[in-house]
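Entry for the shared binder. Reason: the reviewer on the internal report wants the predicted structure included alongside the sequence.
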Amino acid sequence: MVTSCKKELLSPVPQTSITDATAFDTPARVANQVNSMYAALKTGNLFGGRAQVAGDIRAEDFINETTNLVTGADVWQLNATGTSQNFVKNLWAAAYSTINQCNLFIDGMAAKGTSVVGAALSANYIGEARLIRAICYWELLQHYARPYADGNGSKPGVPLRLVGIKESGSSNLARSTVAEVYTQIIADLDFAETNLPSSYSSASLNTTRGHKNTAIAFKTRVYLGMQDYAKTIAEANKIVPQSTAPFSATTGVAHALQANIANVFASPYTTSESILSMPMSSTAGDNPGTQNQLGFYFVQNGSSLGSAEFSLNPSGIVGNAGWTAIDARRTALVFTNTTSGKKYLAKYKTGSPYTDWAPIIRYSEVLLNLAEALARTNSGVNAKALALLNAVRQRSDATTILAPADQASLIAAILLERRIEFLGEGLRNFDLMRLLQTIPAKGSIPAKPASESGYIWPISADELSLNSLMTDN
């Protein structure tokens, strides 16, 4: 792979200004196109911050402090409209812009790029494009489509665009079903697993670019969301082959839990646990931008760090007795503001311009995905599922050994552990919706059952105005 200190940080700043006719003329230009796809994925409106924020603030573990529509007050209130610029419209636009970059790249490689870089490197690059495209389509389904469990994927999904758009007049495309979109996501991830490299030359690249284990890990999330627990297990076992702790990947990148959870969220952000994260730096254009940053949303500690948009709900997970006082995820990653007395998440600690790397998927998630799938497909208390659960818990709280008495208690313990472990990483809404669970009440906002309007977002008003075949939710 073509690397340098700047390319390792996936700089979104164009290296040159070239036309699409010459973008695939040299190996360096092709490599720049690859970097640009990652730059699109990590934009502030997508996985540079707002995708993770949206996945958490819809649920019950945060309280909105500012009533600012720019930073998601309507998302938190569960009344976002199709004209909501800052989340509904911008996330849709950012996701489809990134998908289009991937499609244009795939088209360009077929037309010229493969002959320039060779078949092997071309397959690697296209694998990265299809991985990024799959991640974007997965994110779209989480907000704009009914969960797979509602009708086994038969409900309207999103338009499945697989060819690059270079000019106007190509907007009309009907919605595919949820199942059809998931089928494409899995096809993209399968291709990525086959064609991506096993690893790269540095920890930075192993964390910020897709490799085989990245595709495998993401498949465990996708299959879990489809409630296909057998395939979740099959994929997870590829990188979690052990029956007992310590668990680690024995092929490709050597993923494993960090001994100290705080290391995952501290510089250099390239731990063995970090399967895919979006890197940030203080270079202009290489960070999420104003009011997109994870630290801006979730932290307030003095005048230079965060805006306290969302505090932790005292009645949410931070108030749950199952999350012990000595747990490192509480002692190191939650703090109390001494002025207000309110608790805030401290996973993202850097001040402006907020250079915390934005996590997309970690090895601990693969462990808990596997644990849940095993728990749901085996009666009683499955031994490996329990070992996986305790591996995650005891990494942060060595004094606690979880011992659920039956299958239902084991599943409940795993779901609780997910709320603790991934707080502020965007997975809570996913966990509620994939199981068609009611979004619990929070503050002044009533609960939202799966059957009610507003359980998912409306379609972006921009898409409805441009695409005559599009239907709203």
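Summary line for the report: DSSP finds 17 helices and six strands in the chain.
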